[in-house]
């Protein structure tokens, strides 16, 4: 159970990264930056396509990302049903998958990409100097809320799966 759950979590991490990359690097629409630091939101400017079809590629990658994320959840539920999981086994699987995804979000997206790399300034040079180690944790309240929602969502998903 644990190994498969970790594999599904890794698939979700790949999907989440693909979603971020499609939004930041290809679609480049400001509405995807609502969770960015306020200072960055204020300076981000609309971008022209760097190549023909850039936005279409971004939307295609976004759909693939959503398939990876949703597919991992469905595969986890299906596998649990095949193995006759009980409520708590489903809850542990979903909570583990989503909490590992949240840890990836905090450690890789926030700590590495946002605070320690040139990922965002590569696509948006105007944010250079805004992103750095000093902003780590700017969104801790939203992370705490999302963690609580993950636990509630895992309870709901476990309940639904036990009804099926």
| Helix-and-strand structural type | mainly alpha
Largest β sheet strand count, sense and barrel closure: none
Rg value: 18 Å
Give the low-confidence spans.
Answer: none
What is the average per-residue confidence, as pLDDT, rounded to a whole number?
93
* Total beta strands: 0
Order of helices and strands: HHHHHH
Termini separation comes to 19 Å
Q: If you had to describe this structure to a student in words, what would you say it looks like?
A:
The protein is mainly α and 164 residues long. Helices cover 72% and strands 0% of the residues. It is built from six helices and no strands. Helix 1 packs antiparallel against helix 3 and helix 4 packs antiparallel against helix 6. It is globular and about 50 Å long. The two termini are 19 Å apart. 21% of the residues are buried. The mean pLDDT is 93.
Summary tags:
164 residues, mainly alpha, 72% helix
Topology, pairings included?
Blueprint: H1 2-27, H2 38-43, H3 54-82, H4 87-114, H5 119-123, H6 140-163
In short:
The chain is mostly helical and 164 residues long.
């Amino acid at each position: 159970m644990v190994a498969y759950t970790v594999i599904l979590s890794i698939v979700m991490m790949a999907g989440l990264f693909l979603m971020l990359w499609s939004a930041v690097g290809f679609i480049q629409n400001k509405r995807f930056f609502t969770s960015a630091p306020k200072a960055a939101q204020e300076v981000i400017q609309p971008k022209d396509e760097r190549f023909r079809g850039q936005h279409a590629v971004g939307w295609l990658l976004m759909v693939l990302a959503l398939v990876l994320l949703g597919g991992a959840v469905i595969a986890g539920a299906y596998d649990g049903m095949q193995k006759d999981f009980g409520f708590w086994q489903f809850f542990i699987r979903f909570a583990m998958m989503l909490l590992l995804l949240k840890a990836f979000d905090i450690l890789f997206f926030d700590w590495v990409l946002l605070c320690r790399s040139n990922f965002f300034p590569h696509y948006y040079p105007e944010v250079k100097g805004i992103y750095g180690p000093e902003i780590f944790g700017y969104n801790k309240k939203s992370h705490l809320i999302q963690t609580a929602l993950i636990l509630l969502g895992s309870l709901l998903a476990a309940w639904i799966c036990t009804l099926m």
